[in-house]
Amino acid sequence: MTAAKAPPADAPPPVPSAPAVPPVRTAPARRRLTPYWLLLPGVLWLLVFFALPMVYQASTSVQTGSLEEGYTVTWHFAVYGDALAEYWPHFVRSVLYAGTATALCLLLGYPLAYLIAFRAGRWRALLLVLVIAPFFTSFLIRTLAWKTILADGGPLVEILRTVGLLEVTALLGMTEGDRVLATPLAVVTGLTYNFLPFMILPLYTSLERIDPRLHEAAGDLYARPFTAFRQVTLPLSMPGVVSGTLLTFIPASGDYVNAELLGSTDTKMVGNVIQSQFLRVLDYPTAAALSFLLMAIVLIMVTVYIRRAGTEDLL
Amino acid sequence: MTDSTESGDLRLTGISKTYGGSFTAVHPLDLTVPHGAFFALLGASGCGKTTTLRMIAGLEDPTTGSVLLGDRDVTRLPPYKRPVNTVFQSYALFPHLSVYENVAFGLRRRGAARVRERVGDMLDLVQLGDLAARRPHQLSGGQQQRVAVARALINHPRVLLLDEPLGALDLKLRRQMQLELKRIQTEVGITFVHVTHDQEEAMSLADTVAVMNGGRVEQLGAPAELYENPRTTFVANFLGTSNLIGADVVSAGGGEVVVTASGVRLRLPAGRCATAPGADGRLLVGIRPEKMSLVHRDEADSVPAGRNRFTGTIAAAGFIGVSTQYLIDSPLGPGVEVYVQNIERDPRLTPGAEVVVHWNPEHSFGLDAAQDINSGVETAGDPS
User: Fold this and answer.
1) Which among A94, A141, A198, B329 is placed 20 to 30 Å from A250, CA to CA?
2) What is the ipTM of this complex?
């Protein structure tokens, strides 16, 4: 900000070019300010729709009162402890479901992105369109469709049961009995499905940037195809892995639609609690505190993750 | 995978590559590169030289034929099992690894011993010892090129393949790296197969040059042999510059061929004719521009007897320091090129002057007149 204010303060001194040509002096000054004018709409937007709501939310979280008497700021920080104590299982579920979904997205998305980037040839553009194609249908409709796909006794569930996969997921605590709908598995499935494109696209972008001759060079230097992948392609695609996992994990951990539509009361995530506190219970301070807690947890996890991934110099 | 204890030639027998059943990049080709040779594949882009190299490396499967190293058929071996390493065009260094790890890559894959020592020695050989910790993007083009050579050479391949290794460097650096490559090759004694489109590079580096055109080897031989006795118009024009003159054979015998071109009698040695004169008695007479001399018409008498000569007019003169390049228009045709060394410059030799061009008949060569006379001329747009 000091840098922004400096130019006007310096503007008068350029006297050397003085002798009676004052209009010339103002033009460069105006030109110097142009970038800041161009920044203005964006800054205003952030101020009104990000900074102010954050401040408002923060103040809401430390208010006490009731709907009838109105809320006042009383710096009631205890609300954070209370919220965490009461809803910690929801936090655990949020992190667990979002984490599992992210891992599944990576497992499904990486081979697909690899295929599109290196093997698809002239089908590349078509495959990319197909990755994005689901977005042409409403998010809600697609999630509701999964309700039908995972319905009790439906063909998919029958297959999973016959193959014996449901017993495995039951052991992991992901399903119960012969059901898939209204279990953690259903919620994770929905999250995985909905966020898969956010994993594939950054992965594709970073894989596509890798010079295929690097893979050839690794082979030329005695690396078997898998070693070449592990030593060269994978490390070079880490920026895509990191941004893909972030773009999947962060929104998935705050999601409530999948848990709402595909889960049960036992699979509620923090998002569901926040939603009901805001819109049904009308306990605004608790809802705001939960939002901040979620944000803090995600922020800490992301920071640790990026540090450990060590991809700063590749980003 | 052995450490160069075995010796043996690199042999390509009947090797060819066809893409999609229609486009033939390399026509069936037989080639033997002696052990320890510096061999250059020279040609314009799209002539099949890089495809040939990639087939030796195992990066491309030949449609027919086989690749032999010594007595061992390696045609079906994947690249990672071939005792052959490549210096890629624009290097393909691993951007996420340091110079040290780039060079150590091949050794680590094979679980070699004394990695630190060997990488150190190799980096010293290419004079990059103090840059081991850097990443490739922190190096200049010339330094990257040396890392690429070191990375391949440290594995003691039976054959080192170089795909336009100097193509990305500027002219001055390229000259310097040519000397460096030659020094390294002499030092390590490994067979080098060098692909380039730069004829000077090929001639200055290689013991043997194969000139490729349209997926075929046009001619193969020592640089001086190719330059002095080109057998096709492509080689004559692509390797240096040649003046090619269409002529009718008058007589042939006694080791000498006499021809006339637009009324000018020329003689050339029968031993330097690539083919016997055709049934129609036509022949292309070729002379290198630096073999010809130029005198002003007033001194036509000073030209010794027994030399080939014709009279013409200077159309253009270009001074380039060591020599002056003249274009001479004459009955033989427009634009005969003559290079005259700038020892004593005759001030009368300016455009418009009448001159006598003369040369030793021994310096002429003869080519089959049935070919495209402009094949391989660099200004021609389509290289194939």
Assistant:
1) A141
2) 0.82
Residue to mutate among B109, B119, B144, with most A CBs inside 10 A, is B109
**Dist. CA A81–CA A61, nearest whole Å:** 12
Report the mean per-residue pLDDT for chain B. 90
pLDDT value of residue A1: 36
Of B278, B294, B275, give the one whose Cα is nearest residue B365: B275
Which of B80, B96, B110 is opposite residue A236, by nearest beta carbon?
Answer: B96
Is A33 in CB contact (< 8 Å) with chain B?
Answer: no
Note whether A220 contacts B: Cβ–Cβ < 8 A.
yes
User: Alpha-carbon distance B13 to B10, whole Å?
Assistant: 10
Strand, coil or helix: B108:
helix
- Using a CB–CB cutoff of 8 Å, tell me whether A231 touches chain B: yes
The pTM is what?
0.81
pLDDT at residue B169 above 90? no
Q: Domain ranges in chain B?
A: 10-228, 241-366
Residue contact B109–A214, C-beta within 8 A: no
- Tell whether the model's pLDDT for residue A21 goes beyond 70: no
Q: In the predicted model, is pLDDT for residue B14 greater than 50?
A: yes
CA distance B184 to chain A (A): 20
- CA proximity to B355, closest of B316, B311, B323, B324: B311
Alpha carbon of A236: minimum distance to chain B alpha carbons (Å)? 7
Report the residue of chain B nearest A236, measured CA to CA.
B96
Domain B10-228 belongs to what topology?
Answer: Rossmann fold (3.40.50)
With beta carbons under 8 A apart, name residues in chain A contacting B81: 222
Give pLDDT tens digits for A45-104.
999 999 999 999 999 999 988 878 888 888 889 999 999 999 999 999 999 999 999 999
CB contact under 8 A, A222 and B110: yes
Quickly state the pLDDT bin for A3 (edges 50, 70, 90).
Answer: very low
**All structural domains of chain A:** 2-61 (no CATH), 79-309 (1.10.3720.10)
| Residue to substitute from A210, A213, A214, A220, interface B, most B β-carbons within 10 A | A220
In chain B, count of helices (H) and strands (E)? Answer: 8, 20
Class of domain B241-366: mainly beta
- Residue A269: which of A208, A205, A188 has the closest Cα? A188
Instruction: Determine the residue among A213, A215, A222, A233 to mutate to test chain B binding: the one whose Cβ has the most chain B Cβ atoms within 10 Å.
Output: A222
Instruction: Sort out which chain B residues have CB atoms less than 8 A from A309's CB and list them.
Output: none
Q: Which residue has the tokens 């052995």?
A: B2
Per-residue pLDDT, B122: 92
